[in-house]
Design brief:
73% helix, 7 helices, 145 residues, mainly alpha, 0% strand, elongated
Length: 145
């Protein structure tokens, strides 16, 4: 389907709006506290809505989406597996020894939540925030370099 000649490209966002939407993408991690899973969905929606209007918002929303999929969804699954193994094997002594490790693994989603809030604060201040191990990969994926 071809665009009609009267169709204008979407207007770019102002720097203030860019900071606000980038911050909202990072704060979408808070939706996980209520729903358990809608944080990545919110970040992806922000990406899809603003990717043509702001590279800054596109980068931060995609970064937030990928980080939440790893930290919240992956960390939550790993936590469930660790506690299931600990519970099943607690009939033997090995299960009791696994409790400290399961407790540490349970901190992964909490760490993702705190890291997302830090990203939101830095974006609201106009800083270029990058998640460790995720930010550079997302940037290279989006820019093709």
């Amino acid at each position: 389907m071809e665009a009609s000649p009267n169709t204008l490209p979407p207007a770019p966002l102002s720097p203030s709006d860019e900071r606000t939407w980038a911050m909202m993408a990072h704060l979408s991690v808070l939706a996980n506290l209520v729903t358990g899973f809608l944080g990545p969905v919110a970040a992806l929606i922000i990406y899809l809505v603003f990717k043509e209007r702001s590279r800054y918002v596109a980068y931060h929303s995609m970064q937030s989406f990928v980080f939440q999929m790893i930290g919240w969804v992956g960390g939550g699954a790993l936590t469930g597996i660790a506690w299931a193994f600990t519970g099943i094997s607690s009939m033997a002594l090995i299960g009791l020894l696994c409790i400290p490790f399961a407790c540490l693994i349970s901190l992964i989603p909490l760490g993702a939540l705190i890291y997302g809030i830090i990203g939101a604060i830095q974006c609201s201040q106009g800083q270029d925030f990058r998640y460790w191990l995720v930010g550079d990969w997302v940037r290279s994926t989006l820019t093709g370099t």
